[in-house]
Amino acid sequence: MNKKQPLLEIKDLDVSFRTDKGTVRIVHGLNLTLEQGEIIGIVGESGSGKSVTSLSVMGLLPHPNGFISNGEILLDGRKISNLKEKEMRKLRGNEISMIFQEPMTSLNPVYTIGDQLSEPLKQHRKMTAKERKERIIEILNKVGIPRAEQIIHEYPHQLSGGMRQRVMISLAMLGEPKLLIADEPTTALDVTIQAQILDLIRRINKGKNTSVMLITHDLGVVAEICDKVAVMYAGEIVEYTDVRTLFDEPLHPYTQGLIASMPNMNERKGELYSIPGNVPKPTDLPIGCHFSTRCSFATERCRVEEPPSIKNGDHMVLCWLHTKEAMEAQPVEVKQEVGVNDGDQYAITS
């Protein structure tokens, strides 16, 4: 029996940018698979390459400076990386859609909500003006926007942040895409609205079997909504597994540090743990493991040799600590604290 083809496959992807100092690689050898109906979270600090990855899938890298320098992206088995712009336009808003981080900068301030929602329908659907209006009102109602008949005549600045984000989701869902990319969709929204937006994305995922790629720095959001997680650091995926395994058995010191940084809702003790240092610039990456300058477990080997990709079933980690030799060198269970968050210890466990 043939295995079902994944909806999205990213294979050995490198993304580079031309700069005054030469060509700089931003994303390195990225591999990712997303099945139909799955939600994957891509998590990491700012500067880790999350948004560049999503723009690569959408074919929206800034031309001509940004480009895919190696690897490929496949949607339903069809190669979509490096497609001509005319062909990508047929996919965008139809088979792939994106919810951008800040709706105020993504929505055009001089056009009404109705005019902006009409555009993808004009491009991808043969509909009369009346049919378009009915479809727009229907989708606005589905995402929980009240008085949709009036809102189509209003401008973005007349709506609240939460309402604008719902309009962005409506815009993304008009063509009923197979893949929805959400880039920090809850940033700058209050907690109640955040929960409503996440619930809306989940309902779209369940109701339409839409696959979702969620770009976020918030592990709380990942725990709430995702099936799989890819942890990115300095342009690489350093850990990749299902969401339960990630929280139960985080292997990479960076993942452990992110989890240790999460606030505990049940207790309030002292300061939150934070990972020392910052994500390195793409032009100044450390030799060997990119995380070695911030890692309390780093050995001399970590500082001079790139770590291997270690796989245990569906759990992948990019780390020297989990090679066979490193594990055999530990006669007993390794437990070393990487951070304490409200009394909870997070450790590497062999």
What does this structure look like?
Helix content is 32%, strand content 25%. It folds into 3 domains: 1-82 and 196-248, Rossmann fold (3-Layer(aba) Sandwich), CATH 3.40.50.300; 96-176, no CATH class; 251-265 and 285-348, no CATH class. With 350 residues, the chain is of the alpha/beta class. It is globular and about 70 Å long. It is built from 13 helices and 14 strands.
Report a brief summary of the structure.
The protein has helices at residues 50-58, 85-91, 103-106, 113-124, 129-142, 148-151, 161-173, 191-208, 219-225, 243-248, 253-260, 300-304, 324-328; strands at residues 8-19, 22-34, 39-43, 66-75, 78-79, 96-99, 179-183, 211-216, 228-233, 236-242, 309-312, 315-318, 336-341, 344-348.
Lateral strand order in the biggest sheet? 6-7-8-3-9-10-12-11
Structural class by SSE content: alpha/beta
Strand segment tally: 14
> SSE string, helix = H, strand = E?
EEEHEEHEHHHHHEHEHEEHHHEEHEE
Total domain units:
3
CATH topology of the largest domain, by name, is: Rossmann fold
CATH superfamily of the largest domain: P-loop containing nucleotide triphosphate hydrolases
CATH class of the largest domain: Alpha Beta
* Major sheet size, sense and barrel closure: 8 strands, mixed
Low-confidence stretches: 331-350
What is the CA-atom radius of gyration, in angstroms?
22 Å
* Global geometry: globular
Question: What would CATH call the architecture of the largest domain?
Answer: 3-Layer(aba) Sandwich
Number of distinct helices: 13
- The average pLDDT score comes to 87
